[in-house]
Design goal:
Blueprint (H helix, E strand, L loop, with lengths): L4 E4 L6 H14 L3 E4 L10 H11 L7 H7 L10 H13 L2 H8 L4 E4 L2 E4 L15 H10 L4 E4 L6 E6 L2 E5 L4 E2 L5 E5 L13 E7 L4 E7 L3 H10 L4 H9 L2
Parallel strand pairs: 1-2, 4-5, 5-9
Antiparallel strand pairs: 1-10, 3-4, 6-7, 6-9, 8-11, 10-11
Bound molecules: zinc ion.
């Protein structure tokens, strides 16, 4: 059987979305996994999601929310009160050992010739956002492998570096061309923000170089009910239904 890689990230403690994605991965015949970070934050099941990702034993990079929850000296007064409340609540759900596991995650890894980073290879520890081709250019300066997968914006996108420059390609199923570099935003499993509320991840077949975006309907009402039952801000429940 050939290799089929699933790349997923920005899970954000949404167990309903994560379980739907992993069921689809099994159905699709996925042979290996890569995780672009932000396992926790925003939603109500950080411990369950962390446990699943750890058990998978796959390469994982650190997202900004993983970083906030795990940082020992982070000043939460810089956050808006709702965001600070969720970081604090998430810390209380996790054991010291689980927090330490998040703290030890790398900001970037290269695995079998593919790079993984949460935000951008341009100072990944500062978690800059890449929304356009100019911001992607600064990533490409640091990207050493032909393919780098990332997340952070929760909006799927493909950046292609050609001889003549960097181009933004709307997320779509495509075959990656040899001789070009790709910086691919895999979207968000647990809190999509591109107006489509379905859980999102990417499949990549390294033999055929085929890239496929998967968008899956999941039980949003269940995820919202967990947010409300946990007493997290109502806005976090509402946004799941609109994909923003
Ligand atoms: Zn995120």
């Amino acid at each position: 059987m050939g290799r089929l890689i699933a790349i997923l990230g920005d899970i954000h403690a949404n167990i309903d979305a994560l379980e739907t994605v992993l069921a689809d991965c099994r159905e699709q015949g996925v042979t290996e996994y890569l995780c672009t970070g932000d396992i926790v934050g925003y939603n109500a099941c950080p411990r369950e999601c962390l446990s699943i990702i750890r058990d998978m034993g796959c390469p994982v990079v650190k997202g900004n929310h993983d970083h906030y929850v795990a940082a020992e000296d982070l000043d939460l007064s810089d956050f808006n009160p709702a965001a600070a409340a969720v970081v604090q609540w998430t810390r209380e759900q996790l054991s010291g050992e689980e927090v330490q596991w998040l703290r030890d995650l790398p900001f970037a890894v290269t695995e079998k010739g593919v790079t993984l980073v949460h935000s951008t290879m341009d100072r990944p520890e500062t978690f800059g956002y890449v929304f356009d081709h100019r911001q992607a250019e600064t990533n490409f300066i640091r990207q050493k492998t032909p393919i780098c997968f990332h997340g952070h914006t929760h909006c799927p996108m493909i950046y292609e570096k050609q001889m003549t420059g960097v181009f933004r390609i709307d997320p779509q199923d495509m075959s990656l061309k040899p001789g070009r570099k790709y910086f691919i935003n895999v979207g968000s499993v647990g809190q999509p923000r591109d107006g489509d509320p379905r859980a999102t991840y990417v499949l990549y077949d390294p033999m055929s170089r085929r890239l496929v975006y998967r968008r899956l309907v999941y039980d949003i009402a269940a995820a919202q009910a967990r947010v409300r039952a946990a007493g997290l801000p109502e806005r976090l429940a509402v946004r799941l239904a609109v994909g923003q």
